[in-house]
Amino acid sequence: MARTVLITGASSGFGEAIARHFAAKGDRLVLNARRLERLKKLKAELESSAEIHLVPFDVRDRQAVTQALTNLPADFAEVDILVNNAGLALGLEPAHKTDLDDWDCMIDTNCKGLVYCTRALLPGMVARNRGHVVNIASTAGTYAYPGANVYGASKSFVIQFSANLRSDLLGTKVRVSCIAPGMAETEFSLVRFKQDAEKAAAVYAGKSAMTASDIAHAVIYATDQPEHLNINYIELMPVTQAPGGLKVVPV
Ligand code: NDP
Ligand code: 8X3
To answer: Where are the strands (E) in 63-199, listed by range?
Structure first.
């Protein structure tokens, strides 16, 4: 039976790939991002295989999130799967040199936006005793690297929020999964380096990074399990990436 899947950040990268994978299964989609033109293009492309409704809001806008998600059209209102994917990193400067506005934006998007979307849809899932929240974290939420400062911390928040949600929902049939990817080639670095395409391309050059489709496969795996089974956490990296170990340097 077709499920209703709401994906935030569906205008590029993982979100777009996740939308394509669910559409191919014939699921009903509610797609969010700020860039409406991109969402419209994706809708036009996928609507031969899936019913699609667009909700173009900024996840940082609490009122807009609540308004859109608690007033979905009847055919899309019973969301079975929420994929909290919208997010970003800004900058790679050490903590003492970063722009505080970048930190605000990452916390507002990656943490607050994710909880606004979750909070808006959870009551319906619990009332129906059916649903699945899939949160996109990052390996940066577990392994430190220079310049990850607030980005990594925001993803630690996502990992712990997912675990705590699961505790709150114990006793219901609502599932929670957290997917933590390492390096994947999307527009992520273009956003991190504020549209510097050369700098962004250098991140991936010769690295055989994962693709957005690799991450979509993990989301599909987590959401296709039988209803008695909860995938708590999936961490995935390209073969070319591994945690770096502890360092000691003279000061
Ligand atoms: P992209 O930049 O390609 O996609 C990010 C998506 O998030 C876009 O659709 C963007 O849409 C949306 N978005 C950003 N801010 C907002 C906002 N305020 N409101 C609504 N939508 C927003 O990057 P990825 O696909 O790589 O990133 C997706 C998620 O995966 C992020 O949470 C990222 O942190 C995480 N991640 C990425 C990894 C990577 O290596 N690429 C690895 C691990 C995790 P729009 O601009 O139109 O609003
Ligand atoms: C994105 C992956 O390694 O650039 O979350 O932080 S990384």
So the answer is: 81-84, 131-136, 174-181
Q: How confident is the model at residue 245 (pLDDT cuts 50, 70, 90)?
A: confident
Name the closest-CA residue to atom 44, ligand 1. Answer: 138
Q: What is the DSSP letter of 88?
A: -
204 assigned to active site = no
Does the residue 193 lie in any domain? yes
Domain assignment of residue 241, yes or no:
no
Which protein residue has the closest C-alpha to ligand 2 atom 5?
Answer: 138
Q: Look at the pTM and tell me if it is higher than 0.85.
A: yes
- The catalytic position among 151, 204, 221, 233 is 151
Is 245 a member of any domain?
Answer: no
C-alpha 188 to ligand 1 mean position (Å): 6
Sheet strands (E) in the chain: 4-7, 28-31, 52-54, 81-84, 131-136, 174-181, 233-236
Protein residue whose Cα sits closest to atom 48 of ligand 1: 34
Mean pLDDT of the chain: 98
User: pLDDT per residue over 106-122, tens digit each?
Assistant: 999 999 999 999 999 99
